[in-house]
Amino acid sequence: MNSLTLGKYIPLDSIIHKMDPRSKIIGMLIIIVSIFFPSGWIGYGIIGLSVFVVVLLSKLNIKIIFNSMKPMMMMLLFLLFINTLVIKDGDLLLDVFGFTIYSEAIFQTLYITIRLFLMIMTTTTLTATTKPLDLTLGIEDLLKPFKRFGVPSHEIAMLISIALRFIPDLIEETQRIMKAQASRGVDLKEGTFKEKIMAILSLIVPLFVSALQRAEDLANAMEARGYSPGKPRTRYKVLKMKGSDYTLIVCSLILMVSMIVLSRMYA
Q: Could you write out the DSSP letters of every residue in 119-151?
């Protein structure tokens, strides 16, 4: 669980850290949209190379990005199992006692894995290079045009920021509970399937209680400081776009147009 970095800000001195949060959010959304275009292996290679360059510019350790995929491994294995049962196209790779695996099942699983990895790589880079407060201000500014339609931009931005901020706290709380239960003889790795389920339940219940307690403490703290949703608010920090921010947005748009062109070629 220590490897999960989504929502954890890593303070470094890089050009990506100094960028406006709005440009990074827009760039992330454009890249994620680009990932869903069926641009083939060439397209995903271009996207992967582009995101990798951004990671290098942000001075993040590439191991942090790869470690973020570890919690998804069980889901990917489950996806592979489902695909082997459902997809029966392509070349037959394995046939053991009626259980068959076709090449298309492996291909589709690999395709989804690459998409998921690129999305996690992009979102982890955003949260690791953007302070939670800056992320809140950026989301709020981007949602401001929707205020005329009754969309509470500030409240939505605040909820997203709090949710991202609580991810590392919940991970640390989970580790604390697991160590406390291990000292009392609870084993999450050994035992029968039923015993493992009971051990997980004994972990989930105190985790929920702790999360609700943290939420109540946060609400009391915000109320004590006079926070009131919907009221006019002033800002100490005003966001301002620079040349590097516009460059990031333009490069992201060029990348998306390239993926559209490649998807047309593969269609």
A: HHHHHHHHHHHS-HHHHHHHHHHHHGGGGGGT-
